[in-house]
Amino acid sequence: MGLRCNPMTCLYKNLPCFGLPAMTTFTTPKFFMASALPSTSKEDETLKRHFVPPREVHAQVTHSMPQQKIEIFKSLEDWAEKNFLIYLKPVEKCWQPQDFLPDPTSDGFGEQVKELRERAKEIPDDYFVVLIGDMITEEALPTYQQMLNSAEEIRDETGGSLTPWAIWTRAWTAEENRHGDLLNKYLHLSGRVDMRQIEKTIQYLIGSGMDPGTEKNPYLGLIYTSFQERATFISHGNSARLAKKHGDINLAQICGSIASDEKRHGTAYTKVVEKLFEIDPDGTLLAFADMMRKKISMPGHLMYDGRDDNLFDHFSAVAQRIGVYTAKDYADILEFLVERWKVKELTGLSADGRQAQDYVCGLPPRIRRLEERAQGRARQAPSIPFSWIFDREVQL
Ligand SMILES: [Fe+2]
Ligand SMILES: [Fe+2]
């Protein structure tokens, strides 16, 4: 998974618009419910902000799956065996991080590392900030597996369950694990970044979790993951394109290989939701509209490095400016899903369903108009220091 804000509430002109901004949200009255615990000092307050689960971010509902829908997932197991698991790749056919990295057993290891570092010298700081943010997001994988396992209908009951949903979740996690691993090792070897600050950010992020607003509801969870996997496919794909532009073919291959995994994952989740639309069009459409009203918050939205309370917003702003993941991408993904799930063509809907249909179909052009207006009002964004690159300044 990977990465990002809401066109209506962007702090900076170029902040991509995906859901909830990071720590700035915490100053809202809602969040202060989390801070309603006894507090002795400002320091305690800050600590709590980074360890108390963000349960107020969406005024969270913990279980919204209606009883009558639960059976739908049971009845889909045979279908999932044949149509969902085919999108997993056998381990023997998967790339591994070592395929793209200097070989520590070779005599040429030192030379290979030197070459990697020479190439990395040509890459600008803003690119590194975005690659680091993406790597940190990938590294918070325990949170995403936990999210998939929160929905009772598809969860891995034993840790080794043989339902297709559980098999998928474990194998998907195992595939995803290679993403953070590869980017982490590459960044470590590049010599351009403050690994300790990055490692702290990963620890904070896993400790904070996330608030995707999926309410232990597999409809919401699968719509969220369909969106999110496509978002990571686009962002890693753009990182590959820019790495090539900066003359680093090896890094382009790294990002491109990750992007192709994300595309396959996105196709798989989108297929399941397509099936849900087939058997329960009204319920699936209501879930889709619900998810989009809440906005898709990015998995790393609670990112913190021990210094910058708005780190996620800042990282997202740079990603938007250099074109790795933008508000336009958000609208494009939504449009893609609306078409893929044939939302416009759905008939026989309830009154609520028709309302949801109008809302979802009208959303991409609305987001694009808001983004164009925001661009029109844009002012020169400031440059700020990022601890990940030894406090060198990067323009937002
Ligand atoms: Fe990933
Ligand atoms: Fe993925």
Automatic annotation (TrEMBL):
Database matches in Gene3D superfamilies: Ribonucleotide Reductase, subunit A
E.C. number: 1.14.19.-
The protein's annotated pathway: Lipid metabolism; fatty acid metabolism
GO biological process, one term: fatty acid biosynthetic process
GO MF, one example: metal ion binding
Positions of Fe cation 2 binding: E176, E229, E262, H265
Cofactor, free-text remark: Binds 2 iron ions per subunit. Binds 2 Fe(2+) ions per subunit.
GO cellular component, one term: chloroplast
Compartment(s): Plastid, Chloroplast
Keyword 4Fe-4S: no
Domain of life where this protein originates: Eukaryota
Reported cofactor(s): Fe cation; Fe(2+)
Keywords associated with the record: Chloroplast, Fatty acid biosynthesis, Fatty acid metabolism, Iron, Lipid biosynthesis, Lipid metabolism, Metal-binding, Oxidoreductase, Plastid, Transit peptide
InterPro entries hit by this protein: FADS-2_CS, Fatty_acid_desaturase-2, Ferritin-like_SF, RNR-like
Catalysed reactions, as listed in the record: octadecanoyl-[ACP] + 2 reduced [2Fe-2S]-[ferredoxin] + O2 + 2 H(+) = (9Z)-octadecenoyl-[ACP] + 2 oxidized [2Fe-2S]-[ferredoxin] + 2 H2O
Keyword Membrane tagged: no
PANTHER family referenced in this protein's UniProt entry, alphabetically: ACYL- ACYL-CARRIER-PROTEIN DESATURASE-RELATED (PTHR31155), STEAROYL-[ACYL-CARRIER-PROTEIN] 9-DESATURASE 7, CHLOROPLASTIC (PTHR31155:SF9)
Subunit text: Homodimer.
Role noted for this protein: Introduction of a cis double bond between carbons of the acyl chain.
Family designation: Belongs to the fatty acid desaturase type 2 family.
Listed name of the protein: Acyl-[acyl-carrier-protein] desaturase
